[in-house]
Amino acid sequence: MSKQDTKNENPFGEGYEEAQAGSFVKWDTIGQQFKGTYNGSYEADNALSDKMQKIYEFIGESGDVNKDEEVETGKDYRIGTRGDIFDRIMKTVVVGQKVAFLFADEIPSKKKGNNPFKLIKVYKGELDPNYQPTVEIVDDIKFED
Predict the structure, then answer these.
(1) Strand boundaries in the chain, DSSP class E
(2) Counting CB atoms within 10 angstroms of each CB, which of 6, 41, 54, 71 has the fewest?
(3) Reduced to 3 states, what is the DSSP secondary structure of residue 35?
(4) For residue 68, what pLDDT band results from cuts at 50, 70 and 90?
(5) Which of 87, 81, 93 has the alpha carbon at shortest distance from 36?
(6) Residue 5: strand, helix, or coil
(7) pLDDT at 66
(8) Rounded distance, CA 96 to CA 37, Å?
(9) Torsions phi, psi of 86, nearest 5?
(10) Could you tell me if 34 and 77 are in contact, meaning their C-beta atoms sit under 8 angstroms apart?
């Protein structure tokens, strides 16, 4: 069987599904909301600015991904930032905590030609009782002297 024949097949069979990167939430409509459970963060290169940006991962609960797409419960989503107030607020959120976001306003840039500042309000909720960590915690490790 050639590589082309297998590109859409699952070679591992039942019980395995292809992992997908989460969709990015795009803040394009004032009043847009997103709710989910915080699942961690990482840093990545921002192709538009050649600077590092923080990417936050969430397990979606409800809201809108963009003006044309609603959140699917249980699907992975990402929110990218540019090292601003959002990052400072997210430092107070713990993995497994429910979080809601509201695109509250757009403030014109002070520099001509720059995009407006998008004011995203963050609302912290309780820990999600159904959250399953992605790392298994082992408490019976024995060390030799």
Answers:
(1) 23-24, 33-46, 51-66, 69-70, 76-80, 97-107, 117-127
(2) 6
(3) strand
(4) confident
(5) 93
(6) helix
(7) 87
(8) 6
(9) -55, -45
(10) yes
